[in-house]
Amino acid sequence: MAAVAAVAEAPDLAGPPAAAPWDPALAVALVELGARVEEEAVLDDLLADLGPGSR
Asked: For residue 53, is it left (φ>0), alpha (ψ between -120 and 50) or beta?
């Protein structure tokens, strides 16, 4: 998963995490790691999820 790789190089979490209604455990995990994942760091994976056959 790209987000896991991105967290290794992610900037520190500043403030409360954004809500992630599609994955409630995500915000908890990011708080525990003290990191944030920028969309740009995982953009290719996000776009691939939106592509044909992603559902």
From this structure: left
In the chain, the amino acid numbered 21 is P
Q: Which residues is 12 bridged to in the sheet? A: 35
SS3 12: strand
Quote the radius of gyration of the chain (alpha carbons, Å).
12
Per residue of the chain (55 residues), give pLDDT as tens: 566 666 667 788 888 888 888 888 888 888 888 888 888 888 888 888 888 765 5
d(CA 24, CA 2): 18
